[in-house]
Design brief:
Blueprint (H helix, E strand, L loop, with lengths): L1 H20 L9 E3 L15 H14 L6 E3 L2 H14 L14 H14 L3 H4 L4 H8 L5 H19 L13 H19 L1
């Protein structure tokens, strides 16, 4: 069920996006990303859920023949976890099996950065090292993170999502006002 449902919804999204993205709307192109690794070792199920995600990832990658832009996160992340577990059998990017820790977030980000064409930035050990490489003040990172979290909490809350562990968040106008203040701090450091 999961696989056929995801495949159907992905086809619908791509059909919609080809109509929208082929118009004169901002020259946007849809880039799909295969699902991340699921850590069955940390959060076991009655079946190997990562195998289900691999099957979906393989299907997405096969759609490149139809001209779809697909970044392969799944196989890269699965291989990286396997590589690291040879040295540390308890290694994980996802302490709960799903949600990445800081190292997991950086792995995902670095794969996307590489896919978008910046191999040098993607090769950095962590976000701070990437910023230093680029001559960007590392002090920007907590401000950018805070701004993203403000907006995430506001928009997720406005959508009615009840994800455990997420703050209720400000209203969208309040969050945007607070984000604008952070933007000013970010711009002052950026100079």
């Amino acid at each position: 069920f999961f696989f056929s449902s995801r495949r159907r919804h992905t086809r619908s999204l791509c059909d919609w996006s080809s109509d929208v993205c082929s118009s004169d709307l901002a020259g946007a192109r849809l880039i799909l990303v295969t699902p991340p690794f699921y850590d069955d070792q940390v959060s076991p199920r009655p079946f190997v859920y990562n195998d289900v995600l691999k099957r979906y990832a393989d299907w997405l990658l096969a759609q490149r023949e139809q001209g779809w832009l697909v970044v392969d996160l799944h196989h890269a992340m699965t291989a990286e976890v396997a590589r690291r577990r040879r040295a540390d059998p308890k290694f994980t990017f996802q302490p709960d099996g799903v949600h990445p820790n800081d190292a997991g977030h950086w792995f995902v980000a670095s794969r996307l950065i590489a896919a978008l064409g910046d191999a040098q930035a993607a090769s950095a050990e962590n976000p701070q090292a990437m910023l230093r490489q680029a001559g960007v003040p590392v002090e920007l990172l907590p401000l950018v993170t805070e701004r993203a979290q403000l907006r995430r909490d506001a928009y997720v809350g406005a959508a009615g999502h009840k994800r455990p562990g997420l703050a209720k968040g400000l209203t969208i106008p309040e969050a945007e006002e607070a984000a604008a203040k952070l933007d000013a701090k970010i711009q002052s450091l950026w100079k």
